[in-house]
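The records we work with from here on pair a chain with its fold. These numbers are not coordinates but entries in a learned vocabulary of local backbone shapes. To see the layout at work, look at the sequence and tokens printed below.

. . .
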Amino acid sequence: MPLNDLALFMNRYIKAVASVIISSIIINGCASGVGAYKKGNYYEAVLEAVQNLRRSPENKKSLQVLSVSYQAAINLLTTDIQNQINSNAYLKWKNVIGNYQRINTLYEDIRTCPAALKIIPKPMEVYKDVKVAKDSASTECYNAGIQQMLKGTREDAKSAFFLFTDANNYSPGYREVIELIQQAKTNATLKVLIKVSNPTSYHWNFDPIIFTSSNNQFVAFYTEQQVHTKSIEKIDQHMIVMVNGYQESRPTVSKNSQEYQDNFQTGTKKDSTGKDIPVMQLMKAQATTFDKQILATGSLQFIIEDANNSAQLSSVMIQSDQSWNCRWIICSGDFRALPSAMRNFCGKPELYPVDNQLITQTKKDLDKKLSNIISEFYKNY
């Protein structure tokens, strides 16, 4: 009987036997693997059953699930492996390796679980087969990478980079794959020239933010000096960051005066019957509240242009609005008449912002916004 037909027959036979066993199990949780088995996820059923047996070696449900799921999982995996090998599927050896590794995962899980090992005393392992498959996969990925490189586009170079990387992972140092990885990376990288207008205004320097804002490994930023020094032949885009300006208002102070009064006991006195009664006195106070505010605004113009035709790809105005506030209160009269929260402010001096405080706040906020915009723009390149 051919291998595929035999595997199919075994799957059907195991299912028939297992249905009798599983029907007697009351499902009360996924830990035993019953749920996965019912859905035909034999591989997951084995893993769940073994995991449960580590916690509860005598668990009958998990023991029964393992006994019927393991061979079903192996048959399914080996059949798929053989079908992949016999096919002309693209990158078939990557899929073959994945299934081999699943078989080895079951092997390691079972052999390190005494309760599972009693049910499956000789689990299957295919470590030698994995090595052979990796040799084939490295050749497969290498050849596919070459084909992608020949197409000549940036996106195809990105695909080639990952294919060559896989080839090197399967067989380290395979042919000249290290050099090809670097070449594919170079061809796939978008090269952006940074142009900052008014870079010294207010001592603002946006270079550290720009050059650390993109997490995309296929995007590289260069200054004009770096382009010259590194002999970069082709620039793909220009990034222009223009400092529009910074303005800080004069302090504005608002004033609000309010009077407060309340009755307080100042002592006691005897009434006509000789009983002590409180002596009350009206206490008054005045509080003048001063609120001082300074406003600051800074802005940038962020532009991305295609270096080949100067087409504008993005234009964003980035603005930061900041403020500094201070409050103090001048109090007079009897402070006992004032609200308790207000008393804490009485007598505190008028404050002033630290030197360059608002400029620093504005720059920090612009840094954050610029970084987010750059990261968002280049995340899919």
Summary: The first helix runs from residue 3 to 22. The CA atoms of residues 5 and 293 lie 84 Å apart. Confidence is low (pLDDT under 50) at residues 20-29.
